[in-house]
Amino acid sequence: MKLLDIGEVSERTGIPPSTLRYYDELGLIDSVGRHGLRRQFGPEAIWQLSLILLGKKAGFSLDEIGAVFGKDAATELPRPRLQARADEIDQQIHDLAVLRDAIRHVAACPAPSHMECPRFRKLLRVAGRRTRPKG
């Protein structure tokens, strides 16, 4: 197994060495040794870092990511929590699509004012339904 120096892992992933050391301290990745003072990682660290980055993009905290993928991870995946987060992402995609459509429409609308445009007002109503507080 070819070991990767912390600098090489940083270069391959774009993650600063300080963050790699932090993730190692949290148990999200494991250094397998040192070459002088520099930490060494196995090639699996690249995959582990990809999972961490995906988890962060999905809105999970580092604690949540560690609970699922860290060295002390539970043996059972929290499938309901993962499904709920996927549902939240679906809603964000929908909301962003509505926002995108509104912006594109305003940019191309021939009405003298976007507030006079019936289509834009309809888009606002649709967006407003999603942002009202529940209760």
TrEMBL record:
**UniProt protein name:** Helix-turn-helix domain-containing protein
Among InterPro entries, the record links this protein to: DNA-bd_dom_put_sf, MerR-type_HTH_dom, MerR_fam, Tscrpt_reg_MerR_DNA-bd
- Top-level lineage group: Bacteria
Instruction: Please give the Pfam families that the UniProt record associates with this protein.
Output: MerR, MerR-DNA-bind
In Gene Ontology terms, what is one molecular function of this protein?
DNA binding
Q: Which UniProt keywords apply?
A: DNA-binding, Transcription, Transcription regulation
Source organism per entry reads Nitratireductor mangrovi
| Stretches assigned to the HTH merR-type domain | 3-71
